[in-house]
């Protein structure tokens, strides 16, 4: 087999032993790798209805056929499990040297089951697994723990680890690597912490099996040069995603005051132009020549790696207008292993609850000192931090009907940094994202703003599905970064060519669309199986965007229309081959080779 090892390493933390799970070429051609491999393994290994924080809930670390190879922006891994934040499928990708070393370990994925009685970490050296004591690093933040591990094992390796937030079960805790690379927004860090697993240290030296190594190197060289010579390369290197602050404010989609508004008069104080002046370094994932991690010194003179999402959510959304203060909150969140998007949402939700008099303990908009004090409290679930650690959905439920009116999440995952009062296509992208509200699967908003932003057209629905199939299907399964294509227009044909050189299989975009459809339908089936029920309202964006219009800017008075959104959602279901409830039809499952999921769905919700 070329492109894949054909093996998953299954690690049992109860028995302190590991075994190989061998998979055939049909498995890989059906699911490719990364997210596809993760959801297929999760379907088999997770007991139906398992508690996300139970030892029986598997944690999957998955690569794809292009992960960790010397091609553009390939240093990615997918971390997946049943989410303690949403109760459904959860994943995230993370840029890390661990991708390089997993690819050279002799395995395509690691599936971790069980839990240790005492804190441990895994040291996996060319596939040989050691279960090592982690008592001395348990409780340390991610930056300090990583340094300790490198002192023991050297620097030529990859490390995935959690901070105090993951150890203490914060529902939006993440897996962290390389002092600022973070992934797994729906609580993948909490799953790892529930297993008393502090870290996974990977070292691999094996040469991965490839169909045509020389052709891959030649195509990779072409792609690297295409990136360097692209029209937007110089501007990208200057600001990366931080240029989106100014764009979002101009487009009136910049989340402000818990997504109450889409424009903020102080946006320049957290924007890309200021970041450029303060920048001291730039970081990126392995094999990347368009690094997106812009580094500035925060208020405490420590380095903090910034991008648009964390700056908007910890800046405009909480009315914090000092970029160095925003950077400090961001760096502290990375140290604690807390997702910055959900953190910004949770703080903003509580600020609004405080403003409305729904909670007794006050938290004012833009109060940096109090927010700074709350970050470690959230990580350790102390005092008010314990309430904030639950995430917006659960906080809102405890406050009754009024709390739900300004709770900005989908299926329990907090919305990332785009307000959609006047962006129905992006609202649909959030509503149908397979992990809950996230932009990575279908970032349609730039297209929408530049065309007819107020329409609820079938064209937009088709574009959402197309983007999901490419971004959430192709890129999440290969597993490589989407930014060369998204930001600099790298032709998708490069990826099909590189897939051919790696695997020996000719792939077309139609083939990719079929695999993506299979992955999205299996993820939806997993959600339904784990919930035991389904209703289309779960695919609605936050109720705030329907009920409470914007009051500032040129779009004042605008809000989403529920009836029109519902029509878009029905179109989406039709294109996906799902029924009006949002459940895959029996014939859809059969056409995608997913007949094995039908009995579970038939028993719980019935199939049409």
From TrEMBL:
InterPro entries associated with the record? Ald_Fedxn_OxRdtase_dom2 (IPR013984), Ald_Fedxn_OxRdtase_dom3 (IPR013985), Ald_Fedxn_OxRdtase_N (IPR013983), Ald_Fedxn_OxRdtase_N_sf (IPR036503), OxRdtase_Ald_Fedxn_C (IPR001203), Tungsten_al_ferr_oxy-like_C (IPR036021), W-dependent_AOR (IPR051919)
* Alphabetic keyword roster: 4Fe-4S, Iron, Iron-sulfur, Metal-binding, Oxidoreductase
Similarity field: Belongs to the AOR/FOR family.
Report TM segments.
Answer: none
Please give the organism: Fervidicoccus fontis
Cofactor requirements of the protein: [4Fe-4S] cluster; tungstopterin
SUPFAM superfamilies recorded: Aldehyde ferredoxin oxidoreductase, C-terminal domains, Aldehyde ferredoxin oxidoreductase, N-terminal domain
- Name of protein: Aldehyde ferredoxin oxidoreductase
* Gene Ontology MF, one: metal ion binding
Q: Does the keyword Oxidoreductase apply?
A: yes
Domain Aldehyde ferredoxin oxidoreductase N-terminal, which positions? 4-206
Question: Which Pfam family, giving just one, matches this sequence?
Answer: AFOR_N
**Gene3D superfamilies in the record:** Aldehyde Ferredoxin Oxidoreductase Protein, subunit A, domain 2 (1.10.569.10), Aldehyde Ferredoxin Oxidoreductase Protein, subunit A, domain 3 (1.10.599.10), Aldehyde ferredoxin oxidoreductase, N-terminal domain (3.60.9.10)
Q: What is the lineage of its organism?
A: Archaea, Thermoproteota, Thermoprotei, Fervidicoccales, Fervidicoccaceae
């Amino acid at each position: 087999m070329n492109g894949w090892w054909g093996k998953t390493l299954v690690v049992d933390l109860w028995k302190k032993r590991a075994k190989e799970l061998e998979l055939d070429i049909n498995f890989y051609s059906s699911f490719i790798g990364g997210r596809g491999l993760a959801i297929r393994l999760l379907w088999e290994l997770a007991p139906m209805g398992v508690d996300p924080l139970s030892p029986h809930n598997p944690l999957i670390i998955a690569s794809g056929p292009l992960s960790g190879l010397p091609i553009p922006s390939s240093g990615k891994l997918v971390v997946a499990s049943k989410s303690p934040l949403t109760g459904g499928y959860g994943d995230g990708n993370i840029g890390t040297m661990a991708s390089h070393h997993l690819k050279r370990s002799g395995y395509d994925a690691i599936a971790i089951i069980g839990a240790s009685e005492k804190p441990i970490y895994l040291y996996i050296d060319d596939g040989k697994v050691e279960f090592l004591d982690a008592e001395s690093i348990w409780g340390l933040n991610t930056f300090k723990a990583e340094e300790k591990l490198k002192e023991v094992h050297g620097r030529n390796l990859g490390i995935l680890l959690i901070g105090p937030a993951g150890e203490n079960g914060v529902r939006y805790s993440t897996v962290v690597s390389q002092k600022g690379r973070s992934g797994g927004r729906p609580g993948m860090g909490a799953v790892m912490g529930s297993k008393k697993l502090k870290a996974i240290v990977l070292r691999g030296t094996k040469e991965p099996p490839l169909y045509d190594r020389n052709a891959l190197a030649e195509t990779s060289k072409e792609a690297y040069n295409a990136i360097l010579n692209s029209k937007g390369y110089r501007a990208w290197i200057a600001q990366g995603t931080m240029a989106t602050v100014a764009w979002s404010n101009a487009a009136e989609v910049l989340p402000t005051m818990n997504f109450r508004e889409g424009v903020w008069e102080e946006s320049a104080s957290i924007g890309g132009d200021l970041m450029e002046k303060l920048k001291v370094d730039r970081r990126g994932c392995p094999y990347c020549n368009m690094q997106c991690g812009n580094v500035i010194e925060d208020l405490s003179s420590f380095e903090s790696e910034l991008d648009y999402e964390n700056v908007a959510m910890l800046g405009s959304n909480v009315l914090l207008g000092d970029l160095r203060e925003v950077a400090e909150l961001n760096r502290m969140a990375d140290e604690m292993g807390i997702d910055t998007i959900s953190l910004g949402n949770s703080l903003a939700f509580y600020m609004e609850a405080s403003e409305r008099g729904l909670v007794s303990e006050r938290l004012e908009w833009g109060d940096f000192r109090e927010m700074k004090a709350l970050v470690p409290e959230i990580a350790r679930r102390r005092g008010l931090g314990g309430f904030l650690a639950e995430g917006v959905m659960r906080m809102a439920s405890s406050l009754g009907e009024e709390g739900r009116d300004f709770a900005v999440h989908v299926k329990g995952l907090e919305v990332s940094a785009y307000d959609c009062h006047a962006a129905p296509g992006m609202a649909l992208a959030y509503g149908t994202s397979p992990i809950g509200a996230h932009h990575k699967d279908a970032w349609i908003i730039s297209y929408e703003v530049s065309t007819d932003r107020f329409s609820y057209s079938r064209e937009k629905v088709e574009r959402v599905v197309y983007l999901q199939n490419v971004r959430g299907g192709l890129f999440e399964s290969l597993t490589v970064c989407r930014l060369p294509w998204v930001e600099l227009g790298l032709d998708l044909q490069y990826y099909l060519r590189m897939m051919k050189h790696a695997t020996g299989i000719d792939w077309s975009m139609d083939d990719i669309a079929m695999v993506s459809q299979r992955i999205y339908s299996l993820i939806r089936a997993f959600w339904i199986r784990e919930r035991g029920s389904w209703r289309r309202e779960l695919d609605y964006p936050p109720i705030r965007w329907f009920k409470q219009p914007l009051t500032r800017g040129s779009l004042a008075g605008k809000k989403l229309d529920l009836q029109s959104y519902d029509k878009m959602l029905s179109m989406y279901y039709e294109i996906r081959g799902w029924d009006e409830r949002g459940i895959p039809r029996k014939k859809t499952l059969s056409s995608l080779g997913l007949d094995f999921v039908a009995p579970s769905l038939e028993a719980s919700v019935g199939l049409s």
